[in-house]
Amino acid sequence: MSLKYKAHNPDGIYFVTLTVVEWADVFTRRDYCELVCESISYCQQKKDLIVYAWCIMTNHVHLFCSAPKLTDVLRDLKKYTSRFLVDAVKMNSRESRKNWLLWMFKSAGEKSASHGEYQFWQLGGHYVELSTNELMEQRLEYLHQNPVKAGFVEEPEHWYYSSARDYAGEKGRLEVVLIE
C-alpha cells in the first residue's frame, strides 16, 4: 500500500474514505448502514477510535477520526464489516440485488490474494491528515454537503447517517467529538 494511504501521525486527525468495491450502492438499506454504525461504535468503545465527523453515502463512508493505531483500527473495521455485510446481503430475503451484489463481491475476492471468498471494501483507503484548520473546514464542509450535492436531502442535518446532525445541535447516530 502506498505511504500516502496510511496514517503516520498517531496524534493526527485524518479524513478517511472507505469505498465499496466497484462503487456498488450497498448503503441504500438501513440495516446495512446500522451494521457500519455498530462497528464504528465498537471501535470507539474498544479500540480508542475518536470520531469527529462522519457520513455514510450509498457506496462509501467518510470519517474524520483519530486513534493511536488508526491504520490497524480501520483495517479491523473493514475486515469485520466486510464479513458481516456480505452475510447480511446473503440473509436478506428482501434484497432484490442479492445475486448481483454477491457476484460482485465474489469477483473482487477472486482478484485479491489477501481476501477470502468475498471482498466488500476496495483495497486500502484514502487517508488525508487534517493538519490545518483550513483543510479541516474544507473537508468538513465537503463531508456534510455530500448528501445534499447527491440530491438526497435539502439540508445536511436531514441525512440520518451523518454527523451534520450533531453539528446542527441535534443528537446524531454516533458519538462525535465536535470540532470547534
From TrEMBL:
<dbReference type="InterPro" id="IPR052715">
    <property type="entry name" value="RAYT_transposase"/>
</dbReference>
<protein>
    <submittedName>
        <fullName>Transposase</fullName>
    </submittedName>
</protein>
<dbReference type="InterPro" id="IPR036515">
    <property type="entry name" value="Transposase_17_sf"/>
</dbReference>
<dbReference type="Pfam" id="PF01797">
    <property type="entry name" value="Y1_Tnp"/>
</dbReference>
<feature type="domain" description="Transposase IS200-like">
    <location>
        <begin position="9"/>
        <end position="146"/>
    </location>
</feature>
<dbReference type="GO" id="GO:0004803">
    <property type="term" value="F:transposase activity"/>
</dbReference>
<dbReference type="GO" id="GO:0043565">
    <property type="term" value="F:sequence-specific DNA binding"/>
</dbReference>
<dbReference type="InterPro" id="IPR002686">
    <property type="entry name" value="Transposase_17"/>
</dbReference>
<dbReference type="GO" id="GO:0006313">
    <property type="term" value="P:DNA transposition"/>
</dbReference>
